[in-house]
Amino acid sequence: MDKIFVIAFGLLILQGVLSFNQIKNYQIRIKELKKKGLVGIGREKGLLRAGNITILVCNKQGKIIAAEKMEGITVFSRFREIDSLKGMTLQQLKEIYTDKKKNIGAKAMLQAIDSLETATKVNGQVL
């Protein structure tokens, strides 16, 4: 019986270490991407399915410079680039993902787009 508790405790510690590494990876990616332009972040929690964090980087004109997504249910998930979004405008992305609201990751993408739209507006005018 004691062995089970030792193993369970060891697994709990391992999960904590791996979660810490994942958080550090997230912080490093955000810091690096902020150097490129305005950053928008969206997240979608998954209870029984994969969760999703989307990071978009755009210039002041609203054109996507970089896009990354972390998707998964384990602590081994890492950010991957989404090259197909580079060069698109926020409006184009919004039109694409508004139609796909039910798809996994669409909610996170729309949150990131909304965040960037807010960041690119000054006094109600787009920069």
Which characteristics define this entry?
24% strand, four-stranded antiparallel β-sheet, Sufe protein. Chain: A, two-stranded antiparallel sheet, 127 residues, elongated, alpha+beta, 46% helix, 6 strands
What is the gist of this entry?
This protein has three helices and six strands; from the N terminus they run H-E-E-E-E-H-H-E-E. It has helices spanning 2-34, 90-99, 106-120; strands at 38-44, 51-58, 64-72, 80-81, 121-122, 125-126. The longest helix is centred in the first third of the chain and has 33 residues, at 2-34.
Topology:
Blueprint: H1 2-34, E1 38-44, E2 51-58, E3 64-72, E4 80-81, H2 90-99, H3 106-120, E5 121-122, E6 125-126
Antiparallel strand pairs: 1-2, 2-3, 3-4, 5-6
Helix pairs in contact: 2-3
Structure write-up:
It comes from Geosporobacter subterraneus DSM 17957. InterPro entries: Glucitol_operon_activator (IPR009693). The mean pLDDT is 86. The strands form 2 sheets. A 4-stranded antiparallel β-sheet has the order 1-2-3-4. The longest helix is centred in the first third of the chain and has 33 residues, at 2-34. It has one domain (2-126): Sufe protein. Chain: A (Alpha-Beta Complex), CATH 3.90.1010. The protein has 3 helices and 6 strands. It is elongated and about 60 Å long. The chain is of the alpha+beta class and 127 residues long. The chain has helices at 2-34, 90-99, 106-120; strands spanning 38-44, 51-58, 64-72, 80-81, 121-122, 125-126. Helix 2 runs antiparallel to helix 3 (106-120). Strand 2 (51-58) and strand 3 form a beta hairpin. Helix content is 46%, strand content 24%.
